[in-house]
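Chapter summary example: a protein plus 1-deoxynojirimycin.
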Amino acid sequence: MKLFLKTVLLSAIVCLCYPLSAAPKSDDGKVSEKEIARRVETLMKKMTLREKLGQLTQLRPSTGTVTGPSGEPMVVEDFIREGCCGSLLSVRKSEDITRYQRIAVDSSRLGIPLLFGKDIIHGCRIVFPENLGLSSSWDMDVIEKSARIAAAESAAYGIAWTFSPMCDISTDPRWGRVSEGSGEDPYLGSAIARAMVHGYQGDDLADKSTIIACVKHFAAYGAPQAGRDYHTVDMSERMFRDRYLPPYRAAVEAGAATVMSSFNDFDAIPATGNKWLLQTVLRDELGFKGFVVTDYNAVHEMVEHGVAADGKEAAALAMDAHVNMDMVDSDFIKYGEELVREKRISEKTIDMLCREVLAVKFRLGLFDDPFRYGGKARENEFYLPENMEVARDAARKSMVLLQNNDDILPLNGTERIALIGPYGNSGDEMLGAWRGYGESSRAVTFLAGLQERFGRENVSFSEGCKPFAAIEGGADAAVAAARDADVVLLTLGLPSKCSGEATSLTSIEVPQAQRDLLDAVAATGKPVVVLLVTGRPMDIGYETEKADAVLLTWHAGTMAGKALADVVSGDFNPSGRLSMTFPLNIGQVPVHYNMKRTGRPMLDPASRAKYLSRYMFTPNEPRYCFGYGLSYTTFDYSDLKVLTPEVAVGEPVKVSVKVTNSGKRDGAEVVQLYIRDLVASTTRPVRELKGFERVFLKAGESKTVEFVIRPEDMAFCRRDMKFAQEAGDFHVWAGHDSNAELQGMFTVK
Ligand code: NOJ
């Protein structure tokens, strides 16, 4: 009873001290920034140095996800009570979120609410395709909706902060985290970054269904040497600004509330202690106003990097670089007071760091109602049927038809289908890495989806093998199933556990056990459609030789089976396009469409000349280029018109192109626009994407698509290091993929 009274009293005091609902609002109905700043200052005046450091500390409860050293065992409840914890990472159960929040609000001196963060990167309860898959949809609307739904479900679960979007450009499929990003291109990556931030954060953070985004991993985490996770990143500042920075910038400009500093070093200085990155670039140049959290344990890892002698020095480096929150290793709370006493960090710096964290908590409305996120009452907000349909749409739009010999797909609906392979009847394998609070039991398997669409009796299933091992009798059963059917749908690829963090590989081929299964099944002579389940580009030369068709399904999420059935039945005409190049073999890596020009280019792929930038025994061209993807119909391009053949610096360029659905089925095409700067003060890429539009065309229908290339789209890091446009001549291409042939020209004077 005594405890209850204390609880009620404290809650009342907290609400009286920080009521925001009654606070002055701006014209848009939101609490004004001025009012937030006032509230922050009032609160800060009451805080001890230790409590301020507490706000800069994110802890992991013992039941939270571990993605690195688990740190010293600690009772997080005690830290929360003492006001020494501002945020919790990856709390598993919704009821625990409420419990921890209750401790913070009722039992800590100032009752400052906790901020709960988690990696909700492609869905919370409803899981969408892994991000690389989503990006292959080139559909900003569906991507934004996926983030919107993820936010609403996270908020209902109790999570107000997602560590997404991952804006790391990567050109290396050895790096497993390519699955979490949007591929190799800065223009597409920027569009996706904007869509996701807007999806998560909406227009008002104080809305109970929006959550804050975290742009990660700042910076250049997607370029580790040799594709090995956490490895050194070393690139020129120019390359960084031209290719890697744009998506982070887009996300920051879209208003992302937080940014995560990355594990890697950048120009020999770990990002988490890199003042140039976190202050000069992020805040001074990009104008970021929120707060920076480190990646997991990244402060302390500066000791292992060899730039700090111990945790205390590491904490000083990070704070001085303008890191606001220390994820998991707790060096800030351990050493912060000492650092201030020794005058290595000023209290003013701590105040600034703390102020920025508190402002975000106020913007989220956490002081208004600390329990607004999560709670029993919100459980009915999961798995809403209309949201499940968005997941289905996202999944089918993400699938990329890579090969379709003799138009074997779509199926005509009368075939007996043998679904074979290790991923065909697994909900778990559909969810991929970082599946939020997704439940594999809710995932529609390929088998379930196909049986629902084609009839139970018409679809058999045989596992055949495990991802990396044969199973006894597996191949024989699969062969029998194939013989009994008219067509084989064979799932091959890499399991979820080979996707995401710490999953670097030196081979991106289909594992041998699965190849053996393919051999056995193909030997039956039955037509084989490979369903490629993967979170990264793979070398599938062997498979394309043996199979009739290849459909890249990715780890397609909760609605995988329904989406697959839509595509193979022809109910949905595939429209996915690669956002990352598929190499011919691993030796070509990194290979991407926007490579730089060289002094000895290999312009004619058939040339036998020696002293060119080429391989002796392998072509330069990848297996599937960026932007590639087939459809059940065909699209023709004509009438490329440069509407503004001459513009001044600072003026937009307009280009139009006619696209015609020249086949027999309705379908969507992703019309793509590329440019090349012919002569510039620095070497420029052979091509750069500068526009795209998804258009739906009925069979026989044509449409003229108009693109506007804005001056900022033509800007780059010039010889003088200014990021700006230069005058000159440009080629422009429009068409189906990054090999588009229809060409025009324009001049910027
Ligand atoms: C480590 C990962 O690099 C990062 O992406 C993630 O957000 C954090 N762990 C938190 O789980």
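Key point: The first strand starts at residue 57 and ends at 59.
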